[in-house]
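Backbone-to-sequence.
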């Protein structure tokens, strides 16, 4: 099983470096162009089907890509972005949000505040996705159009497994860049040392 992850194209909030969360925000003209360019690149990967986050920016990206690929395409709620801060912060820059509020993302306290999503809920969604794909698509090549922090959470589960924590997720947010419409590949196959079938990161952020 191969899983091609693509982050959605650029939105106005992204261009202005504003926190977006789960707010519906359409692609900019640049985001549309990014989606068209990545669609051309994806043609060579022999994709069997597409899943996408139902949030507008990801759905729009998937629709543009599928004009080129013409594959079965389905929304999947598991793929929505991690709402790591409450709605009231969406549309704000990091300086407007403030250091004290940003620190809430970087500790291992998994208490939910306001309408944010807990880290444990995010990881539960990631595990459900993996189980769904293993059960239904073990021999397929799947394209997933989603969000940068959902991709990072999947990477974290591969790197850290059961020890993956909220503070480690914060490290991934700080240290792993994922460009708009960058392609990453996960593969479920046997490992070299243990010969066990596991999910592996093959490459990330191909642009």
């Amino acid at each position: 099983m191969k899983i091609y992850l693509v982050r959605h194209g650029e939105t106005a909030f992204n261009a202005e470096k504003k926190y977006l969360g789960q707010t519906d925000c359409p692609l900019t003209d640049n985001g549309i162009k990014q989606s068209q360019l990545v669609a051309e690149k994806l043609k060579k990967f022999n994709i069997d089907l597409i899943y996408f986050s139902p949030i507008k920016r990801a759905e729009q990206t998937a629709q543009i890509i599928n004009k080129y690929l013409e594959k079965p395409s389905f929304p999947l709620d598991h793929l929505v972005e991690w709402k790591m801060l409450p709605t009231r912060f969406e549309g704000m820059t990091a300086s407007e949000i403030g250091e004290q509020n940003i620190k809430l993302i970087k500790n291992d306290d998994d208490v939910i505040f306001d309408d944010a999503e807990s880290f444990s809920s995010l990881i539960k969604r990631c595990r459900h996705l993996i189980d769904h794909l293993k059960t239904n698509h073990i021999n397929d090549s799947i394209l997933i159009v989603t969000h940068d922090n959902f991709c990072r959470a999947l990477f974290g589960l591969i790197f850290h497994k059961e020890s993956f924590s909220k503070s480690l997720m914060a490290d991934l947010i700080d240290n792993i860049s994922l460009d708009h419409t960058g392609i990453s590949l996960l593969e479920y196959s046997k490992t070299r040392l243990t010969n066990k079938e596991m999910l592996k990161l093959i490459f990330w952020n191909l642009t």
